[in-house]
């Protein structure tokens, strides 16, 4: 049998909390990105529900290594934390991370990615979305706890995320600002006041693609189009190294 080179699929890694973990559900923003990149790139979901940037910083070395990032040609990484960090300290101390530490954690995550070969220009930070307090308070009451997040606090963490991205030399998708632009009713983007609705997922997918497309546009379709396969000698088409 003739020798051939294994097919290497580039990766886009989605690293974040529950808003990333659930993004592969029907109509999710991660699923939409994966669909756009079919046959070009593997979109890998590394969403960790409930996690904050402190825990993300600790666990990241277990999720990505220099060998995996180099061999799999990581095309981009999204870093999407803050919705749990901004939990009020007196109401939810387990998830709360001070905003100053949150900023430093994001910068540390960027440094870790750089150390394994993912340069800052391949990283896209995403701020937490705005919080609809009335809707989220209903969810909190159902769980037997008081309102544990505020939109104003989410805004402080969004601003810190924007600053971290600028200091790291990376792009940022500022959901907190964009979803409230011109005083629009941002509640349509949220299913429960915190997590994304179908409209919110579409919003993220659209705006993220605007930033992501330039990083993946050069990627070719992997393996030949079926109509181009030599039916008499398919190995010639399918096992070529180009």
UniProtKB/TrEMBL annotation:
Gene3D superfamilies reported for this sequence: SGNH hydrolase
Domain of life: Eukaryota
Keywords, in A-Z order: Hydrolase
GO molecular function, one term: hydrolase activity, acting on ester bonds
InterPro entries assigned to the protein according to its UniProt record, in alphabetical order: GDSL, Iah1-like, SGNH_hydro_sf
CDD domains registered for this protein in UniProt: Isoamyl_acetate_hydrolase_like
Cell membrane in keyword set: no
Keyword Hydrolase: yes
Function in brief: Probable lipase.
Protein family (similarity comment): Belongs to the 'GDSL' lipolytic enzyme family. IAH1 subfamily.
Identification of the protein by name: Isoamyl acetate-hydrolyzing esterase 1 homolog
Species of origin: Oryzias melastigma
């Amino acid at each position: 049998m003739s020798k051939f080179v294994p097919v290497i699929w580039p990766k886009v890694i989605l690293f974040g909390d529950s808003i990333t973990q659930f993004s592969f559900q029907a109509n999710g923003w991660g699923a939409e990105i994966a669909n756009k990149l079919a046959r070009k790139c593997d979109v890998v979901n590394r969403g960790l529900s409930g996690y904050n940037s402190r825990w993300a910083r600790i666990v990241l070395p277990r999720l990505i290594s220099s060998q995996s990032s180099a061999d799999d040609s990581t095309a981009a990484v999204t870093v999407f934390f803050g919705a749990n960090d901004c939990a009020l300290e007196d109401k939810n101390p387990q998830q709360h991370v001070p905003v100053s530490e949150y900023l430093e954690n994001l910068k540390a995550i960027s440094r870790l990615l750089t150390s394994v070969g993912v340069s800052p220009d391949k990283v896209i930070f995403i701020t937490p979305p705005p919080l609809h307090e009335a809707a989220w308070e209903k969810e909190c009451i159902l769980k037997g706890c008081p309102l544990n997040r505020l939109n104003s606090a989410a805004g402080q963490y969004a601003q810190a995320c924007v600053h971290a991205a600028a200091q790291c030399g990376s792009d940022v998708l500022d959901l907190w600002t964009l979803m409230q632009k011109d005083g629009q009713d941002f509640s349509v983007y949220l299913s429960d006041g915190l997590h994304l609705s179908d409209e919110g997922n579409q919003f993220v997918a659209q705006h993220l693609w605007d930033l992501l497309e330039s990083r993946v546009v050069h990627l070719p379709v992997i393996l030949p189009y079926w109509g181009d396969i030599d039916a008499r000698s398919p190995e010639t088409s399918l096992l070529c190294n180009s």
